[in-house]
Amino acid sequence: MSEEIRAFIAIEMPDEVRAGLSSLQRKLRPGQHPYVKWVHPEGIHLTLKFLGNIRRDQVSPIEEALSQASTGVSPFQLQLGGLGAFPNLARPRVIWVAMTGDLEQLATLQRGIEQCLIPLGFARESRPFAPHLTLGRLRERASPEERRRIGELVKATQSEDAATMEAGAVSLMRSTLTPQGAIYDCIARFELPARLPTP
Q1: Which residue from 188, 150, 193, 196 is spatially nearest to 171, judged by alpha carbons?
Q2: How far out from the chain centre does Cα 89 lie?
Q3: Inside any domain, residue 199
Q4: What residues make up the domain containing 42?
Q5: What DSSP string runs through 77-135?
């Protein structure tokens, strides 16, 4: 068994959000574009911090850091927003759907995780946090014309009945790369503490 695991920290999606994501993907692939590799809805999650390859003896300190980062944030509401692409719709490489809702609470949680992981040797992310869910990635062989076409389709597609969810836990996830794609499983989950009712 490998001494290292490929890990990241994320908020997992409930079934109703995955159903909404699946519906969006169906609208985006009427022609079954062979140059787009779609992410299976069960594997879609909101990444808060990518850790890369970590040693197994790092798992426990990371779990302690996540437990600490989760204590000050109560559950909050998120929902699916509009569609977009990285780096842009003219030359898309990654197709995504934005997250909306209580983004202030989400940013507080993400900053807390970053802060708690610094003493463990994980550098703060240099890019600003842009909460999104990846729907698909364009293959390297996609031509400029194919990229332009899928970009226009993304621009023309609206996310309907934006699914709402309660973000109530943070998960330490393992990613296992296989020829069929990445397989994700949860190593540990940390519930966000419920806010006490005001008297």
Answers
A1: 188
A2: 20
A3: no
A4: 4-191
A5: EEEEEEEEEES-SSS-SEEEEEEEE-HHHHHHHHHHHHHHHGGGTPPPPSSPP--EEEE
pLDDT at 32 (0 to 100): 64
Give the active site residue among 45, 89, 116, 171: 45
Query: What is the rounded CA–CA span in Å between residue 159 and residue 172?
Result: 28
Predicted confidence (pLDDT) at residue 131 exceeds the cutoff of 50:
yes
Give the pLDDT band of residue 30 (cuts 50, 70, 90): low
Residue 28, in any domain of the structure: yes
Six-digit token string for 92: 């898309």
Q: Would you list the DSSP string of 49-83?
A: EEEEEEEGGGHHHHHHHHHHHHTT---EEEEEEEE
Domain count for the chain, please give it. 1
Helix (H) or strand (E) holding 191: strand 181-191
- Between residues 155 and 161, which one has the greater pLDDT? 155
Look over the chain and give the mean of its residue pLDDT values, rounded to a whole number. 90
The yes-or-no answer on residue 40 being catalytic is no
45 has catalytic annotation: yes
> Under 8 Å CB-to-CB from 22, ≥6 apart: which residues?
41
pTM, two decimals, is 0.90
**Which of 96, 132, 133, 153 is labelled catalytic?**
132
- Average of pLDDT values for 56-82? 94
Look at residue 1 in the predicted model and tell me its pLDDT.
Answer: 42
Tell me, what CATH number does 145's domain have?
3.90.1140.10
